Amino acid sequence: MPISPVSQTTDAPPIRFLDRDHSILAFNERVLDWARRPEVPLLERLRYLCIVSSNLDEFFEVRAAPHLKVAQGIGPMGLYTAQSFEALSATTHDMVARQYSLYNHELLPAFGREGIRIVSHGERNLAQRRWVKAYFEREVRPLLIPVGLDPSHPFPQVANKSLNFIVRLGGHDAFGRANEIAIVKVPRVLPRFIHMPVGGKSGRNRKGMLFVSLSSIIRGHLAELFPGREVGQFSQFRVTRHSDLAVDEDDVKNLRTALRQGLEQRNYGEAVRLEVSAGCSEYLSGFLLRQFNLTELALYRVQGPVNLVRLSQLVDLVNDPRLLFPRYSACYPTQLQPGQSFFERLKQGDVAIHQPFESFDAVLDFLREAVNDPQVLAIKQTIYRTGTDSTLMLLLREAVRRGKEVTVVVELKARFDEEVNINWAEMLESISAQVVYGVVGLKTHAKMLLVTRREGQRLVRYAHLSTDNYNPGTARLYTDVSYLTAEPLLTLDIHNVFVHLASQSRLPRLHHVWLAPFQLQRKLMEKIDLLGEAAQQGKETRIVAKMNALTDEDLMRSLIRAGQRGVKIDLIVRGACMLPAQLRGVTDNIRVRSIIGRFLEHSRVFYFRCAEEEALYLSSADWMNRNMLRRIELAWPVTNPALRQRIVDECLTASLHDGVDAWDLQPDGTYARVNPPDPAQRHGAQAALMARYSVTYTAPRHRGA
Questions:
Q1: CA distance 557 to 14
Q2: Which residue has the higher pLDDT, 265 or 335?
Q3: N or C: which end of the chain has fewer CB within 10 A?
Q4: How confident is the model at residue 83 (pLDDT cuts 50, 70, 90)?
């Protein structure tokens, strides 16, 4: 893996950090490994293939633009050089080629053995061609408007990641001109895969299931879109555009209005990647590259559909339980009882919910009780990603209707959820909820829900904090920790953070919470450095930290210093990690592990131990510069010893002993999948937790793991 230039301070030895972009791509390699595994159910293998493609789309949309500028001769730009762009291109081209090889040579034949086929244009018999033609005439052709290019018909605006065809025509148009290039834009509303009749009926029968792709349907009838012309060369194509919204918050009067205007242009940002069919002629690909101002390295020729992400439709269309993971239903949190008052329960102590093994429904039940309780006077909540169909947002609306004071901090700049959040903000404002958008220049990423309740002569606060978003959909797919508490000083801290976000007044001293961008990075570094000093004094010290990404250089230097002083450090980093592990003489005491499982590892858990003294923090923040300095983030302590031990056991220790889904970072920046020689050690942390929290779940056997 490439490494960045030397980073150096006066109090730390020189260290070459791993390249962030290549580390992101290495994460996708680990995800792609799930699509390769024969023991994984077939539809799930396809789903993982689609996830990799979706991740690559986002990588290009967010990370590729500065590399491309170098390739276009604008640069070098900081760390970006022509050589770095070439190295990155080689890695992404190789990954894409292996994706399509897996799809064509392993997954499609495996589907065929199950009686599931995607029938191409050349494979269709006469009856199938008639059916496809009828479908084309009825459902597709009325929505297509081919554009022949000439001076009065310039190259059309092509939306980000949309499906299109380019066609080279022979002959002359209706006006006797030989304009030879035409573009066919395919509407997004059309399904990408369609059931085709089997034995006279559409759907499944004893012969299996047949599907036809939309691109194949259009390809088979291109000539009919250009009557009187000869269709020669043609190709489907797809362009990816830079899509990271940039709004100068200091320069706008209304952030919501500015973002909505920006969203209108997102689909037409700078082109960063062009995908075409493998058989696309040099003439047509060159024409497209010039139109989008791209270099040859930005061109991806693919053996199949130009958008593998849309293959996820097949998972839903087939929906065969034999080809999916066994259904898992999360149990109700073990510390709670359905129907029990949350307010009464929290008087007895804090509650942790380990999602998705325990159900997120309890969080909704907590809010539902607050909404329906006449003694609850106020509800405050942060919103980052909730989804388009949100029970939680409807509960907040009901709280307003019942006369409660509802304050919602909506983060409008949550990447790719901006429009959804704008719509929720407008809905809440329309019913007179207090809606604020946090602090100018900072994203509000902290996950907080605060309930204020009258109890006799007192006002008592109850809080929910989380490492995840308030999204029931992702709560079934992501591993996270929800935390419910009535601890007075902790809930006072949360109240003060809400006041700060709404009024932007100076924060009072916080008792338990570490808040970014003010204290979080400094507090973490202080903890790490204190353990380093203790280790030098001969004390037994330990750090175990779990997060999604590790790219903050100050924190990495602190970890390296502590490790060199003798602190034993285990880092469980699912995605990008720039800290090289087990590097002789530099990071000998630091191990880095990545867990890639059925569920997306998403929790942030930080454990520090000096001799017998332990501290455990949960957080909304990854150890990235943006989280530490450009976001509102929280970390809070778990002080109950039994609860702390449970989280350590389930979130940290289980991952460190995983023998199925774990990968260890090597000194050269590559990852090696953990494969214990002893079969007794070949167990997965997620499967063990699923078995623990559900009596109905049976862990699948992993062959060769």
A1: 10
A2: 335
A3: C
A4: confident
Summarize the confidence of residues 680-687 as an average pLDDT. Answer: 86
Question: Can you give the C-alpha Rg of the chain in angstroms?
Answer: 27
Sheet strands (E) in 72-135? 116-118
Backbone phi, then psi, for 267, in 5-degree steps? -70, -5
Chain mean pLDDT for the chain: 89
The two tokens of residue 39 are: 């023991």
How far apart are the C-alpha atoms of 446 and 136, rounded to whole Å? 49
386 close to 424: Cβ distance less than 8 angstroms: yes
Residues 671, 649: Cα–Cα separation, whole Å: 24
| Residue-range domains of the chain with CATH | 7-36+42-323 (3.30.1840.10), 342-512 (3.30.870.10), 516-693 (3.30.870.10)
Task: Fill in the amino acid letter for 435.
Answer: V
Q: Annotated catalytic sites, by residue?
A: 445
- Beta strands 541-547 and 604-610, pairing class: antiparallel
Residues above pLDDT 90, as percent of the chain = 73
CA distance 371 to 360: 17
In the chain, what percentage of residues exceed pLDDT 70? 90
Distance CA 135, CA 121 (A): 14
Q: What angle do CA 231, 183, 128 make, to 5 degrees?
A: 55
Closest CA to 99 of 311, 347, 346, 365: 311
Query: What are the residues facing 442 on neighbouring strands?
Result: none
Q: DSSP string of 51-87?
A: HHHHHHHHHHHHHSHHHHHHHTT---BTTB-HHHHHH
More confident residue, 291 or 433: 291
H/E element holding 381? strand 376-383
